[in-house]
Amino acid sequence: METTSVPSLRTRRIATLALTSVCVFWGATFLLMKLGTRAISDAMGPDWKVAGGAFFLFVRFALASALMPLLIPASVKRLSASAWKYGFGISLVFSAGFMLQIFGLSQEDLPPGQSAFLTSLYVVSTPILSALLLRKAPSAGVLLGLVFATLGAAFIAGPPKGGLSLGAWATIGCAVAFGGHIVMTDSYTRKTDPLALTFTMLVFSTLWMGLIMAVTPQGLSRLQPQSLAALFGDGRFIVSVTLCAVLATVIALSVLNRWQKELSPSRAAIVYTSEPVFAALISILFGEEHFTGWLFFGAAMILLANLSAEFIGRKAPQGGAP
Q1: What is the C-alpha separation between 181 and 184, in angstroms, rounded?
Q2: Helices 194-215 and 81-105 meet at what angle, rounded to 10?
Q3: 220 exposure class (CB count in 10 Å sphere: 0-12, 13-18, 19+)
Q4: Please, what are the averages of pLDDT over each run of 10 residues along the chain (322 residues)?
Q5: pLDDT at residue 158, rounded to an integer
Q6: Contact 132, 285 (CB under 8 A)
Q7: DSSP class per residue in 258-310
Q8: Spatial distance between the Cα atoms of 199 and 207, rounded to a whole number of angstroms
Q9: Whole-angstrom Cα distance, residue 297 to residue 156?
Q10: Which has the closest alpha carbon to 176: 105, 122, 134, 116?
């Protein structure tokens, strides 16, 4: 009978700290993407939101794709036909989620912290999508989480006036897309190497961002030498896209792939709920938004929704393993 070694307390503490650092990196990306899209708007015009978001992600994914073979050589060494096949499929949902997220952030009525809390609703959307695909009713925790999530999304920016903003709806759509990405990841990483899948997903996502720019009205015509010189001379764009590619994509994925296995899925889920908290704190620290009672209420409801979906009504794993 095979036995599985239990990580030591020291290993679990290092893993918790490592995954918390990933959440800090990911939390910072909401402010970084906000600053990056502002720089693009200043250089290319305020009406270039869709193409501008695609351009930011194009540069981010292209840079991450170029760095992965250098920083994570196994991602290329383990490439296979299946990695390209599944990378193609998962990149569609991955790209859609990021496009909706950055489009929402390009709207001035959606601060980075609020975007992060709304994005975290993927914790609720994931089991719902999984239940629909598997034709299995969602747990009581997911249903209760829907109530908390609806309250949180509706009131995080204050009492709703005429419904949620366009940016908020786009970000909720992003959460649904990321939920689909998680469901596909769970399936595809059992069929091909996870690191190779990550690399091919980034390569295809780079191509999708270029395609979005190509089909968007005036998507490519704005890429004139003068405008590009102004954009790449803007420190906000250079810093934001570089940090998003290096810290939040290549390094964060490397740390996650190394250390998440040292924690139970439930423990890791609790750590990941800190991501929107860090995003809100960073956003407040840099003056992008101000702490209000409604922000606290909405954030608390969304965190409760995430924890409810993760822990209430779920069956314990068989075998008595901790």
Answers
A1: 5
A2: 50
A3: middle
A4: 63 86 90 92 89 94 93 91 94 94 87 83 76 73 77 72 78 89 81 89 95 90 91 94 91 77 66 81 86 82 77 56 39
A5: 73
A6: no
A7: HHGGGS-HHHHHHHHTTHHHHHHHHHHHTTSS---HHHHHHHHHHHHHHHHHH
A8: 13
A9: 7
A10: 122
Largest Cα separation within the chain, whole Å, is: 68
The type of residue at 200 is: T
Q: Is 85 exposed, middle or buried (0-12, 13-18, 19+ CB in 10 A)?
A: middle
Using a 10 angstrom Cβ sphere, with 0-12 exposed, 13-18 middle and 19 or more buried, the burial of residue 302 is: buried
The predicted pLDDT at position 319 comes to 45
Q: Which amino acid makes up residue 194?
A: P
Q: What is the DSSP code string of 72-101?
A: -THHHHT--HHHHHHHHHHHHHHHHHHHHH
CB 275 within 8 A of CB 26: yes
Give the C-alpha separation, 305 to 106, whole Å.
26
The span from the CA of 56 to the CA of 37, in Å, is: 7
Which alpha helices (DSSP H) does 106-234 contain, by range? Answer: 112-119, 122-134, 140-155, 166-188, 194-215, 225-232
Provide the 3-class DSSP secondary structure of residue 109: coil
- pLDDT for the residue numbered 145: 77
Amino acid at 316: A
DSSP structure string for 126-156: HHHHHHHHHT-PPPHHHHHHHHHHHHHHHHT
Contacts of 137-140 with C-beta under 8 Å, sequence gap 24+, read 139/309, 139/312, 139/313, 139/314, 140/312, 140/313
